[in-house]
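LAB NOTEBOOK - FOLDING QUEUE
OPERATOR: T.R.
BATCH SIZE: 2
PURPOSE: Compare the predicted C-alpha cell outputs for two unrelated chains run back to back under identical settings.
PRIORITY: normal
REVIEWER: second-year student, initials M.K.

ITEM 1
FIELD SEQUENCE / FIELD STRUCTURE:
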Amino acid sequence: MILPNKLTANSRINFVHTSSPVSKADMKDFQLTIKKMEQNYRYVRVYDVERKELDPRYLAASEGERLAKFRLALKKANWLMPVYGGTGCGDIIRYLRKFDLTRFRLNHPIVNGFSDTTFLLNYLYFKIKLLTFHYANGCGLFSQSNHKQFFDIISGKVTKYSYKRPAYEWLSPNKGPKKVIEGIAIGGNLTTFRDLLDITRIVPSSWENYVLFIEDIDLDMEDLHRLLIALDHRGIFMYCKAVVIGRMNEKSFNSSWSKLNNMFGPKKQVDHLFEYLISDVIEERMDEKDKDPLYILKVDNFGHGVFNDHMILPIGGKVRLHPDGTVEFVGPFVK
C-alpha cells in the first residue's frame, strides 16, 4: 500500500480538468475553493485547458489537451485535485503509461474526487496501490459540511473515523451480520466503476477482500440491471465481503416500476431494488455449505446530492462494517 504524503502548508496543490467544464451554476463554488486554498496554502495552481471550436461542450477540452495538462499538473503535485466531475475522466486515464504511474509512486500525492473521477481513484489503487479519497471534487470541496474533517484526515490529524445514521439499514440477509465485517474499501459511482473495469481490464486475483461502495444518478431499472450484470459477470457479488449502497435515483425506479405494471399487469413494488436484481447471487451464497452470505448495507450519506456529513471513502483503506450498521474507516491514511 502506498500512502499519500500528508498535507502541509508547503504542499503543492494542483487543480486539473479531467472531465467536464465547471457549469455556470457551480462557478462560484469553484472560485470560492480557489480563494480559500490560496489563503491557506502557498502553492496553489489551476492548470487551465484550452478549448477548441469542435470540442464537445460537455468536456472541459479535448482528450489530448486534458491529458497533457494532467501530466504537467502531476509532475510536482503533492495534492492532485480534479476540478469537476461529469464525463470524460476515463478518456485520459486510459492513456496513462508506466512513466505516469512512476510519478505517482515518487510523489505520493493526495488524490481526491467524486462521480466521474471514480475512474481515476480506483485506477490508481488497483494499478499501484495508492490510497485515494472518494470525496468532493475541487469545485464542491467547501460546499460539504464536513470538509474540515477531510482536511484533518489528509493532514494526518485523524487516523480513524466512522459514520452511523438512523437511515442506515441492512438489507440482506437476516438484517445484518453477527460480527464485524472487515475489508478493503473500493468503488464510488457505479456506472464509472463498471467503465473502469471494461476499459482498463483491471482484474484482481480475487474480490474476496473487498467491500464495494456504490452510488449513482439518472439510472432507471433497466440501466441498473445492465450495470449489475456487468459486475456480477466478474464475480464481484459472489465473492466480495459486502456491498454498501448509497443514493440512487429512487424516483426513476418508481417510474420504471409503473411502466412495467402498465406493460405486464400490476404487481407490488419491491422495497429494495438492488437486492431484488441480484437475488440469485444472494440465494446462492446462502445455499453454500459454509454459508458466506452477501451482506448489503444501505446508507443515505454517500452519493450525489449529499451535502451534510458526506461519507469520505478512502479507496484502498481498511473498512469495518459493524452489526449495528456503523461504517468505520481505520488508518493511517497519509504518512
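ITEM 2
FIELD SEQUENCE / FIELD STRUCTURE:
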Amino acid sequence: MAKKVLFGGVPGMVASDIEKMRQYVLEEAPDAEFHFYGEEVLGKEELLETAQGAKVLISWDQEMDEETYEKLDLIAYCAASVGFNAANIKAATKKGVYVINVPDYCTDEVAAHTVTLMLCLYRRFYLMVDYIREGNWDLAPTKGIRKFENSVVGLVGFGRIPQAVARKLAGFGVKIVAYDPFIDAQKMKELGAEKVELEELLKMSDYISLHSPLLESTKQMINREAIALMKDGVYIVNTARGALIDEEALYEALQNGKIQGVGLDVLADEPPTEMGRKIIALKNAIVTGHSSYVSLEASDEQIRSTAKNVAAFLSGNIPENTLNRKEILGGIDGQG
C-alpha cells in the first residue's frame, strides 16, 4: 500500500527544487505516494482536507496546531530547513508526531553571508554604492569609518553557524564575545570567543550578530531596552529569525542614528508587511531577502537530507537527530 507524502508550504521555492524533492523522495522511498499541494501555506480547514491519509508532511512554513495533528494521521513533520517553528513541536510531541529538520546543510553559506553583511556595513556599501550610482565620485559616505580590526563583534547564540562565523572572523583581528547559556566558556575560547552575559555583550559590541533560535524567551529580544544598552553607532546583523528584533524599535534607532546600520536577511513577516517595507526603504539598511542559505550545493543537500528523513520515517525508523525523539519514545517506554 502506498504511503502518502504531502509536500508544500514552501514560499519562494523554485520549480526545479520542487521537482527535485519529488525525485529524491521517490528515489529514497519508491513506494511513497508523493503529492505537492503548492508553495503557499494552507489554511487549517484546507490542510485538514488535503492531508487526509498523509503519513509525512514536508514543509518550511506550514503552520500546525494540536487540533490539526489530532485530526490527521501523520507520523512526522519533516521541516526542509533549519527552522522548524511552524511545526509547533510542543503540539506535535503531545500527539506523538515526530519533528525533524535539516540543521547543518547551509552552515557555511549562512556564516559567509553573515560576515559579508558585517563587512558591507563596515565599509558603508549601503551608502557608497548608491552615491556613486548617482554620479558622485568622492569620499563623503566614508566619513567617520573606523577600522574593523580591534572592533568588538558580539555573537548572540553560539551554535553551528556562529561558530563558523567565529572561524571566518579569526583572521580579521577582531575581539569576539559571545552569549549562549548552553555553550561553556571553554568551547567558546577554543574558537577565539569570550563568553559574556547578554547585557555585557550589548554594551561592549561594535557589531552585534544574531544567531538565536526563535523561542518565546527570545522573541523581540532586541527591543528598545536592549538597544538603549548598545553603543551609539552600533551595527546589527540578523541572519537567524526576523522576530528576534522589535522592528518598530529598530526603525526608530536606524532613523535617529543609535544604530548606524543594519544587515538583515530575515524579517518578522515575510514577504514584508508595512514595517518591513519601511526598514527596506532606509538608506542604512541592507536587506537580502532570506537568501543567506542559498548555494547549489546547499540546496541539493537540503533536499536530499529531507528525502532521507522521509524515507526513514516511512520505513519505521526514527532518525537520531529527530528533535522530539526522546520525548516521544520516553513516553512510549514509560507506558510500556
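REVIEWER COMMENT (ITEM 2): The CA atoms of residues 105 and 297 lie 9 Å apart.
FOLLOW-UP: none requested
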